[in-house]
Amino acid sequence: MTVQPTKAPGPRLPGFVRGWLPLLLGGALVGTALSTPMVLPVVRLALAVLGLAFAYAGAARLLRARFGPDFDPGLWLGVAWLVLIVLAAATADLLPLPESLDPSKALTEPTYAAPSAAHLLGTDQYGLDILGQIVHGARVSLIVGLGGVLIGGTIGTLLGLTASYLRGRVDGVVGWGTDVLLSFPPLVLLMALAAVLEPRTRNICLALGILVIPSFVRLSRAAGLKVAGQPFVLMARALGATRRRILFREILPNILPSVLSYALLVVAILIVAEASLSFLGLSIQRPQPTWGNMIAEAEAKFQTHPFLLAPAVPLFLTVYSINRIGDFLRAGKDGG
Amino acid sequence: MSIERMSPRVLGTGLLAFALLSAGCVSESGPDGPKSQKVASNLVRGGDEGVCTPDRAGGSVTITEQNEYATLDPAGGSFNFNPAQQIYSSLMRWNPAVSRHDPLLAESLTGNDDHTVWTLKLRESAVFGDGTPLDAEAVIASVERHRAKDSLSTWAARARSISAMKAVDEHTVEFTLASPWAEFPYLLGTGVGMITNPKVDPARLASKPPAAAGAGAFVFDHWTPGNELVVKKKAQWWNGPVCLDSIRVIAQVDSKARKDTFTKGEAQVFVGTADLEISQQVIDEGAHHAKYPLRLGLTPNFGIGADAKTTIGADRTVRRALQLALDPKLMSDRITGGVAEPTTTLVSSDSPLNQGLQGVAHDPEEAKRLVAQAKAAGWDGKLSVMALNQPNNIAIGNQAIAQWKTVGIEAELHTLELADFVKASILGGGGFDVMVSGGGNQPLPECTSCDLDQYATKGAGNRVGYSNPKMDALAEKLNAAQPEQRPALLKEVQAVWNEDIPRILYGQQYYLAAWSPKLQGAKPSRLLTIDLSQAWLTR
Amino acid sequence: MTATEIRPAGKASLPAGRGRTRRGGMTRYVLARVARLLSIIAGVTFISFFLLKLTPGDPVATALGPEATPEQVERLRASLGLDRPAWEQYLDWLGGVLHGDFGTTLTQPSRPVGGELAARLPVTLQLIALTIVLSLAISIPLAVWSAHRAGRTFDRAVSSVLYGLVALPGFVAALLLVLVFVFHADAARTAGLAVAGAALAMTVVAALRSRRARSSPLPPLIGGGAVAAVGLAVYALLPDFPRQGFVPLGEGVGANLTSVALPVIALTFVDIAVFTRLLRGDMITELAKPHVLASRAKGMSTAHVLLRESLRPSMFSLITVVGLTIGQLIGGTIIVEHIFRLPGVGSLLVASVRNGDHPVVQAAIFVIATVYVTVNSLIDIAYAYLDPRVRQVNS
User: What is the phi/psi pair of residue A308, to 5°?
Assistant: First the structure.
């Protein structure tokens, strides 16, 4: 049902109206959704989603009018969001947020407070500020996502690379180990690790890192095989370069772009995985906030206190943004 | 602007938003929080509608519980009360509405003047599923299984207080006790009173009791652990018609999910334990119910098993500091949504047993002083708190830790899965100083003397290693006490308690067994157990 | 847990295939795959044994419950044979498995592990089958039309929604579904009506506009009509979904389907996104190929070009990914089984890990790994059968 400007004869609404109208309408809908307590929460939710969709469509049209038709607003919104959340997580301790970490300092705060000037997103059962917890939780989510990928990615890539270059028995063993790890139900692996290790950020990173090793092995092995047959590698070999030099100077730089753009997607997967673990009570425990354990805690109360579910929004946005950017990077690489 | 010129998308959205708004405005009850700090009043609502008659027959009932237990054998340890009650019934029944033990399978139970000899009369018509009479021999054989040396029974210690059993005639049993116990009828209302057919191999009782096993109105049908346990009605029951075709028992750990199931009508009986706010919501929404008083608190570890010499819980100065630092009002507000009565007395203020009990008042300044004193004596100010990995327990632990922090105690919370938690709380070795929850904290109106089993040196329920000769003496007295003497004795217990802090208290609330008003004739019985033998569903 | 969250990342993105014989032909290839399959399963059981030995947990304590005494615990432990050395218990277990006997559960009441798994496997398999079928039913039309309209509004809208689906964690999706369809089914029905009304209004306006523009009013009529029909169907036919529980197929197909509908929908979210994006990409590549352009130029119908010439060849990699997804779902339905209280393998696994019931965990891991490896091997073998190059070319 696209309306093609060229096909439409007669007077049309001016472009800026076609952009601003949905934007304003969307804003109005979101505002209504947030400020009408007498309407069912479900409907408020539906309204908010609808409003956001419209605001997005309007903004996209305005931005495309300004920056040209190739402009991808979703991508830039994603980048902006990631920058914002990374900055917020990095500077969480410096931000002027109400107490959001130590329940002993929130003993006089109201619990389950509705949003107000003092607590922009309200408070939880400990009287801790939800916005502040989201910001501090971002730190955990990002550290777990990045840390897990760093651990799994490094080990996996090195293994895959080595296997692809050495072939033979090494390749067989690595391939077998990868398949064994892949055949293991991931949650059992995590639960078993969670039972052995204390659920702290470091250990969650480690557990999730182990989990993603096989996929990095497969990716880097496949990419490494491709590169290993290239003329410049064969030449380096013929010139008598050491094995290490060929691996790290010739092959690794060539497969790094695809490993990195894949790693970005894995970060998103691990952020969701950490949240899911929290939901099952297997990750970092309250009161240290993570998005997952905040949502899990909200589960019983969100029908009366919908703002407790607020951490679901940054979780959604972050995963959305990372996916969007990761796909863009991958598409760019494949195309170029 | 003509309608054709409007963007169809804008128009569509406008209409959609309008429609959604109007759909949503239907109505919603205001989100008023549940409010009740009454514990002993309105203990029971419903259940007195009468009994099943043949014209009321039909329908099935689902019971949703928090946990699934390991066995259907009443003498087998952690067993499934609710299905077992339907299969075996019990000699006596605790009636929470009138706070009295009434005969259920039995005809009567009477004690002598000093409560050392109890005479049980059985009903002549009572038979097991295969027609075997439920006679004196069957009772003795069945109770013997709880007393036996290798018994796994939850009530083994109390059952061993029976020193002799004698079949006076076919329908009369005489129990002789080692020492006076005025509340002996309680024992025959527990699993000990669930009489099993001596002709049935006890090994079969655990997971597949045959139809012959019990004298209750229902027979075991199937049990798929992790899914459901179903009992079906007996075609011919000695005690009258049975209305319900079958009863299904399921387990949902999550309180909210359990309430959802009940609210949605997928279960007709709701068993609420951990989350008190949810329990109160169920009551507020009009469910029929029975409440079972619950003493809220945290348990210090006095040293069990491998923890024997390492725990801080054994230090009375620290214990007092922990109690004084805890604000019951704050705990009640934040843990139970203000539903619990904030108090540090042994029973609630409206309990008939409470005749002027005084608890320990909240006093952070004194707590700070005690902490300083303990630190001067060599304590490092650190504390390890253990909680079951379950949201409500974690919240309790965190709130207490937050308040302890304000008086200078650095406590850390460790969450354990059920298996580890039970292991650490039975066998020690968890290395913890204070434990959140941990069972055995009901004031048990059906057995006031049993309450002190958790604190008497050799008490069956004493698993944290608490020992205090004064408490032991009081437990002895309470066993022999007449009902009218108990409030005064409880005052003495409270005095010792306030001095020694066997448990860190902050409130009084209740566990809840609730059922739909459509389910009539349900008989609430002892702790979270409901007898549905003569219940029926209205249409 | 929707599989996908904890599914090892990227398994789907790489075609399987390794360890091939050089020229052995089909038989040798299959034999090699089977040998490898067995060795992987053996590796998995071995690792799971050591992993479980590391975990604390005491089934005896769970069996007796919080009111047990230490003496009772010791007695039961001895009677279960848990006081013997670990390796002895393991060898017993392994010997049993070779005879098809998985032992008995440690959690009381003790029962055969094999029977326990057999009772739960069908539930999980049904979830997986329905998830795959529903995901494909939704994603194939979406992908085809998106590829056809690549870069246009429809395509952009679909891909935005897909990104959203991927970003929605499975447990949040499940909770939202419960909130909407279980507790506000009436609001959902009304919303369905509202959507239908709005779609109809949009259709009429769009059709009028396209008539003025002298273009065919058919596309808006079909699109709008479809949306309106879905909305009306929601309004008129939305069943009453239970909050929890599983109704076996034997107790009525309708009741069975409503009991698994919400879990399946929650599971499909990520799969729809994965399938659609994959198929759309492949089809865009295919649509740009010379023979497709040629038949377009010859004036073949859009349907013919889309379905015959580009969908068919694009299905190849989709089938691979579907196979991998099946393998991953077998251990990945845990969260929905947990939220909806479905008696599947996933919930059995979680409960057994928590209870320290090692025989059950070992057997469940064994079964899950077997299904996973078998499905993957079958795909590899099918690939090799369909495309002989796979057998010969060494990656």
Answer: -65, -25
Task: List the single residue in A with minimal CA-CA distance to B330.
Answer: A107
Q: Does C65 reside within a domain?
A: yes
- Average pLDDT (B206-212) is 89
Domain count, chain C: 2
Q: pLDDT band for position A8 (50/70/90)?
A: very low
Rounded alpha-carbon distances, angstroms, from residue A290 to A2, A145, A293, C17, C339: 42, 12, 5, 39, 20
Nearest chain A residue (CA) to B418: A195
Question: What is the residue extent of each domain of chain B?
Answer: 13-35+295-508
Is A185–C206 a contact, with Cβ atoms under 8 angstroms apart?
Answer: no
- Distance in Å, alpha carbon of C183 to nearest chain B alpha carbon: 8
Range of the domain at C82: 23-113
- Closest CA of chain B from C387, distance in Å: 45
Q: Is residue C10 part of a domain?
A: no
Q: Name beta bridge partners: B514.
A: B270, B289
Consecutive H or E run containing C188: helix C185-212
What does residue C173 show for φ and ψ, rounded to 5 degrees? Answer: -60, -45
User: In the structure, what pLDDT confidence band is assigned to residue B29 with cuts at 50, 70 and 90?
Assistant: very low
Looking at the structure, tell me whether residues C233 and C380 fall in a common domain. Answer: yes
DSSP structure string for B274-314? S-HHHHHHHHHTT-EEEEEEEEEEEEEP---BTTTTT-GGG
How close is the nearest chain B Cα to the Cα of C354, in Å?
6
CATH of the domain at C187: 1.10.3720.10
Identify from A54, A56, A286 which residue to disrupt to test chain B contact, counting B C-beta atoms within 10 A and taking the largest count.
Answer: A286
Which of C113, C145, C178 is the C-terminal boundary of a domain? C113
Q: Is residue C199 part of a domain?
A: yes
Give the count of Cβ contacts less than 8 A between chain B and C: 184
CA distance C289 to C219: 26
Distances (CA, A) of A134 to A141, B321, B398, C364: 10, 34, 19, 37
pLDDT band at B307 (very low <50, low <70, confident <90, very high): low
Q: Mean pLDDT, chain B, as a whole number?
A: 85
* pTM given for the model: 0.83
Those chains having 3 or more beta-carbon pairs within 8 angstroms of chain C are A, B
Same domain, yes or no: C227 and C128 = yes
Are both C91 and C234 inside the same structural domain?
no
C110 chain-B contacts, CB cut-off 8 A: 206-207
Q: What is the mean pLDDT of chain A?
A: 82
- Give B78 to chain A, closest Cα distance, Å: 24
Question: Nearest CA to B14 among A41, C223, A24, C153?
Answer: A24
For residue C34, is it within any domain? yes
C223 plus C284 within the same structural domain: yes
C87 and C118 within one domain: no
Q: Please spell the DSSP secondary structure of C263-296, one letter per residue.
A: HHHHHHHHHHHHHHHHHHHHHHHHHTSHHHHHHH
If you ran DSSP here, which 8-state letter would residue B54 be given? G
Mean pLDDT value across residues A205-225: 89
Query: 3-state SS of chain B: helix, strand, coil percent to 5?
Result: 30, 25, 45
- For the cut 90, the answer to whether the pLDDT of residue C331 exceeds it is no
Q: Is the CB of residue C87 less than 8 Å away from at least one CB of chain A?
A: no
Instruction: Select from A10, A43, A285 the Cβ nearest to the Cβ of B23.
Output: A43
**Residues C269 and C363 grouped into a single domain:** yes
Looking at the domain B13-35+295-508, which fold is it? Dipeptide-binding Protein; domain 3 (3.10.105)
| B353-391: b (≥16 Cβ within 10 Å) or e | bbeebebbebbeebbbebbeebeeeebebebbbbbbbbb
